[in-house]
């Protein structure tokens, strides 16, 4: 105990007299990722020391916003590009000149680095479907290969995902489908998939947790959760659907950093071939952005620079996604997260009616089912509205342009959407029940 | 001339401020600086027009016009009320049997009954779903052998179950303390007058224990109403607290409704508290005789004993199951879609001991200091509110209790906003990233627990005892020191233990305030582990350590109080 006390006292002393060689990193990455990087970096640069502070993405952004007046952080290091966009728009990121070679401009169709040079992609992640092999076997389920597969009735109650408003990477998957299949088709797909869900989690890590422990069979997850779970020994597998978003995880230097030189050194290390190889560590398992790093990758490791990888990847429109970012999150929450029970009831009723009339040839029932399907898929707003600045402005408090006239308040709009959605789900369920009774 | 006049006016001003008044003012300043102002800094957004920044009540109108929020309010209220009912059903037999009968293992039962309160973040949740979830141990076995499942963890009922298991110790602790404090002569008089059995309990014992029961029940109600961890874990988000949380913590969004809900949570908590005061008003529960050993304990017949043990074991099995799951998780290798882990290992503990020793030390330091401060401030507030006539004294209580309803993340952001600009001397850096601020945050967040216990203890204490001491020549402060505080010891201890135990696993405010891993407490370490698939076992192992530490802390503080009581008891006898 005495030793412990002494150690802590010394530790505190060492921290309080930290020299300029300490680089303070705020990150949302787990110790599994930061540990190996810290070790490799400090070995390569013995004169620097990395101080890692772990917070989730939301808490990190709030922390950086609140402490801007006397900033103590050098680097922000996290997955979600949108968190970096928020920091960038509030002038919290510094534009520094980073020397890195051999890193292409794009991965899939997504730019690796911020075009304005405020943050850099250091690892790529794709979205996939993770499944628990024991669960699938016990329930005699097929393996879902594509997002569409998850819409069918046999997956009812077996799927999990996190809410896009809670997880920037989930948001990108939602937006990818909206862009790939179109606004209406895309939302329809999400609603049918969500109708099969047993949970919409609040943390993105909640999804791999649910699949690992077997409380859900399939999870819509970012790839490294699946790969790292498998590497840990859980009975899980990961598949990439052909339409997937490849998204870079990022690193950026904070404006007015106490140790900007050190920060630069660390960013350059992470992007160097040496740093990129750390990503192949079994507990990290993220895709390097430097194509050369794949030469030493283990057998079967996915390579997003490969031509065969995700052939259906779409050209992701970053501006479109950015313009309606909060609106899409809010719409998803209103229609799916907060009304999951209503949606599930409606979808189950339709699925049962369809099973009852699979080959009965009863036209009246088919008409009722078709009507119920239309009601479930109905959207309160069109794609044009979703991109109209006077409407998206409702969902942004910090507006960039003051001259845009904004109509309505978020709470007001959400209430309208909510009653529209709840009514439709209820009617859809009634129609489907009528159809099933025929 | 003017100097002398100020001096003379000061001279007349000072003596009027009694010790209690000075303490009251200091506490008011403390609460203003570390609770009211930081929270107000964050929550005032609720009164602003999101577009123009002008003051408005529009957001509140929106709140009451929104169906989702109306439903959330009803759900929150329903869940809180039902949780109080279920928690009472769990706590009452435990408290009653252990205080009324000569019963081997009373100390162990009381200690074990306390453990559910210490549910480390995340791991507790995982353990619960591995045991009771849709494909948890129980349901997998039920499904294999009988072909059906019980939805323990689904919907509002799941929330009620988990919350009651988690928070019933509030009732158990306060009710037991109150039962022990009841004057035996009351019971004997009732028996002499012919009351016995259930009637004695219903008409005499339970009413006399009412302050303790209400203190516990109010805590359970408010805590469940404001808690967001459990509903979020069960993915029930149509309740008020999760709605507030989800709307405040999104990246880059700043929905004023989140702050409106926070405001309503705080207001409703204060209202519930006021309602419980109202219920207690005009009733005097104080009894004069102290140290008579409380209720007389009866021997049980063999048959009764078997029944009592059966009931207690059943309840303990239910309420300790999450911790049983935690143990399995900490010693298990891979546990996935199976009733038990695939194998067992000590690896996770090895990981924890080699990597995380500093977390344990930090937790002891932070939670211990915070809890001591809590009981000191709690006792002072209780005394001021109940025993003095200071104007506005009730507001100390309301303010302190409102902390219960302030979401940790709101308090954390408020601290960053208020204290980051303040540089501390001695190279400690900005105040908001100094480790001491974590202690203050924990103290503020756990103060309501200590306060409720202290209030209940003082309510049961008759004024006559203090008057007697003063008549015998003791000064006010000596009376408090030698009579009031020792007689409140049980309640103070209960307050210390609840504050300490829950502070040891607090995460939501700490996570905003931790600035270095070397200064982080246990809960933060658990959070770190739980962010990766490989860390689940290690996180659970750290959770077990947290539980063991708190249990040891509880046991030690019991020992200290007992020893103290024996020593002073003997000392007085010798005189």
From TrEMBL, chain A:
The keyword Zinc-finger does not apply. This is Extracellular solute-binding protein. Pfam families: SBP_bac_6. Transmembrane segments: none annotated. SUPFAM superfamilies: Periplasmic binding protein-like II. Residues 1-20 form the signal peptide. The keyword Lyase does not apply. Keywords: Signal. It comes from Aquibaculum arenosum.
Automatic annotation (TrEMBL), chain B:
SUPFAM superfamilies: MetI-like. PROSITE patterns: ABC_TM1. The keyword Cell inner membrane applies. It holds the Pfam family BPD_transp_1. Residues 451-478 form a coiled coil. The chain crosses the membrane at residues 21-47, 77-97, 109-132, 158-179, 200-222, 259-280, 306-335, 364-386, 398-416, 422-444, 483-505, 537-557. It is a multi-pass membrane protein. Signal peptide: none annotated. The keyword Cell inner membrane applies. Keywords: Cell inner membrane, Cell membrane, Coiled coil, Membrane, Transmembrane, Transmembrane helix, Transport. It is found in: Cell inner membrane; Cell membrane. Its main location: membrane. Residues 73-272, 360-557 form the ABC transmembrane type-1 domain. Belongs to the binding-protein-dependent transport system permease family. This is Iron ABC transporter permease. It comes from Aquibaculum arenosum. The lineage of its organism: Bacteria, Pseudomonadati, Pseudomonadota, Alphaproteobacteria, Rhodospirillales.
């Amino acid at each position: 105990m005495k030793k412990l006390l002494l150690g802590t006292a010394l530790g505190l002393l060492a921290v309080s007299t930290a020299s300029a060689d300490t680089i303070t990193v705020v990150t949302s990455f787990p110790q599994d990722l930061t540990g190996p990087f810290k070790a490799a970096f400090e070995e390569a640069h013995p004169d620097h020391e990395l101080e890692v502070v772990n917070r989730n993405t939301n808490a990190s952004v709030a922390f950086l916003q609140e402490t801007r007046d006397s900033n103590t952080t050098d680097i922000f290091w996290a997955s979600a590009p949108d968190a970096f966009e928020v920091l960038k728009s509030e002038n919290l990121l510094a534009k520094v000149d980073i020397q890195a070679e051999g890193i292409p401009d794009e991965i899939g169709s997504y730019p690796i680095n911020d075009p304005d040079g405020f943050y850099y992609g250091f690892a790529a992640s794709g979205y996939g479907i993770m499944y628990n092999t024991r669960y699938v076997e016990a329930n005699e389920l097929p393996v879902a290969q594509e997002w569409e597969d998850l819409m069918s009735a046999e997956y009812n109650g077996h799927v999990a995902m996190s809410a896009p408003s809670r997880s920037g990477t989930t948001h990108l998957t939602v937006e990818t489908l909206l862009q790939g299949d179109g606004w209406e088709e895309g939302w329809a797909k999400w609603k049918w998939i969500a109708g099969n869900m047993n949970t919409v989690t609040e943390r993105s890590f909640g999804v791999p947790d649910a699949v690992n422990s077997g409380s859900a069979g399939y999870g819509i997850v970012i790839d490294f959760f699946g790969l790292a779970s498998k590497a840990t020994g859980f009975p899980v597998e990961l598949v990439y659907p052909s339409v997937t978003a490849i998204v870079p995880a990022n690193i950026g230097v904070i404006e007015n950093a106490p140790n900007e030189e050190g920060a630069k050194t660390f960013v350059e290390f992470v992007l160097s071939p040496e740093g990129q190889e750390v990503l192949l560590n079994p507990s990290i398992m993220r895709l390097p952005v430097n194509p050369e790093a794949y030469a030493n990758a283990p057998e079967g490791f996915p390579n997003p620079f490969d031509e065969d990888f995700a052939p259906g990847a779409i050209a992701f429109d970053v501006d479109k996604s950015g313009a309606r970012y909060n609106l899409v999150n809010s719409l998803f929450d209103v229609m799916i997260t907060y009304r999951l029970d209503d949606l599930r009831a409606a979808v189950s009723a339709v699925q049962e009616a369809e099973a009852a009339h699979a080959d009965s040839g009863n036209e009246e029932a088919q008409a009722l089912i078709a009507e119920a399907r239309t009601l479930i898929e109905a959207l309160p707003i069109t794609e044009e509205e979703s991109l109209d600045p006077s409407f998206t402005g409702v969902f942004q408090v910090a507006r960039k342009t003051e001259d845009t006239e904004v109509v309505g308040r978020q709470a007001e709009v959400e209430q309208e959407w909510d009653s529209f959605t709840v009514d439709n789900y209820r009617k859809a369920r009634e129609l489907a029940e009528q159809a099933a009774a025929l | 001339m003017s100097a002398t006049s100020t001096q003379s006016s000061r001279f007349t001003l000072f003596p009027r401020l009694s010790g209690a008044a000075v303490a009251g003012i200091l506490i008011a300043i403390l609460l203003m600086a570390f609770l009211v102002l930081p929270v107000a800094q964050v929550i005032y957004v609720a009164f602003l027009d999101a577009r123009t920044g002008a003051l408005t009540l529009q957001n509140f109108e929106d709140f009451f016009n929104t169906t989702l929020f109306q439903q959330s309010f009803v759900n929150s209220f329903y869940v809180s009320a039902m949780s109080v009912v279920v928690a009472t059903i769990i706590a009452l037999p435990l408290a009653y049997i252990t205080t009324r009968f000569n019963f081997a293992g009373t100390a162990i039962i009381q200690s074990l009954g306390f453990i559910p309160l210490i549910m480390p973040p995340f791991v507790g949740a995982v353990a619960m779903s591995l045991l009771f979830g849709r494909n948890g141990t129980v349901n997998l076995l039920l499904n294999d052998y009988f072909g059906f499942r019980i939805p323990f963890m689904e919907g509002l009922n799941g929330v009620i179950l988990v919350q009651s298991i988690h928070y019933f110790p509030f009732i158990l602790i306060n009710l037991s303390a109150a039962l022990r404090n009841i004057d035996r002569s009351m019971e004997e008089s009732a028996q002499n007058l012919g009351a016995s059995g259930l009637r004695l309990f219903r008409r005499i014992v339970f009413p006399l224990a009412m302050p303790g029961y209400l203190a516990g029940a109010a805590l359970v109600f408010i805590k469940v109403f404001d808690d967001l961890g459990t509903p979020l874990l069960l993915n029930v988000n149509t309740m008020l607290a999760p709605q507030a949380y989800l709307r405040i913590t999104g990246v880059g969004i700043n929905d004023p409704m989140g702050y409106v809900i926070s405001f309503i949570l705080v207001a409703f908590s204060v209202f519930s508290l006021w309602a419980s005061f109202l219920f207690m008003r005009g009733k005097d529960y104080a009894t004069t005789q102290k140290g008579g050993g409380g209720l007389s304990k009866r021997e049980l017949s063999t048959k009764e004993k078997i029944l009592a043990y059966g009931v207690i074991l059943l309840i303990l099995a239910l309420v300790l199951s999450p911790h049983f799951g935690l143990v399995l998780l900490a010693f298990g290798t891979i546990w996935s879609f199976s009733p038990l882990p695939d194998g067992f290992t000590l690896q996770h503990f090895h990981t924890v001991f080699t990597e995380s020793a500093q977390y344990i030390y930090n937790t002891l330091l932070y939670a211990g200091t915070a809890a001591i401060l809590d009981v000191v401030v709690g006792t002072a507030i209780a005394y001021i509110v109940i025993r003095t006539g200071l104007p506005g004294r009730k507001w100390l209580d309301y303010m302190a209790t409102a902390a219960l309803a302030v979401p940790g993340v709101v308090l954390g952001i408020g601290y960053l906003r208020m204290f980051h600009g303040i540089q501390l001397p001695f190279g400690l850096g900005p105040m908001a990233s100094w480790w001491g601020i974590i202690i203050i945050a924990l103290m503020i967040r756990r103060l309501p627990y200590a306060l409720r216990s202290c209030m209940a203890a003082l309510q049961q204490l008759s004024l006559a005892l203090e008057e007697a001491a003063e008549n015998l020549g003791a000064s006010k402060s000596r009376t408090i020191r030698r009579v009031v505080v020792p007689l409140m010891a049980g309640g103070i201890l209960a307050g210390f233990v609840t504050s300490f135990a829950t502070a040891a696993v607090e995460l939501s405010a700490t996570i905003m305030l931790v600035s270095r891993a070397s200064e982080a407490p246990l809960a933060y370490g658990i959070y770190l582990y739980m962010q990766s698939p490989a860390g689940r076992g290690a996180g659970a192992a750290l959770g077990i350590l947290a539980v063991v530490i708190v249990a040891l802390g509880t046991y030690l503080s019991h020992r200290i109080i007992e020893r103290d009581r024996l020593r002073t008891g003997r000392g007085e006898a010798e005189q």
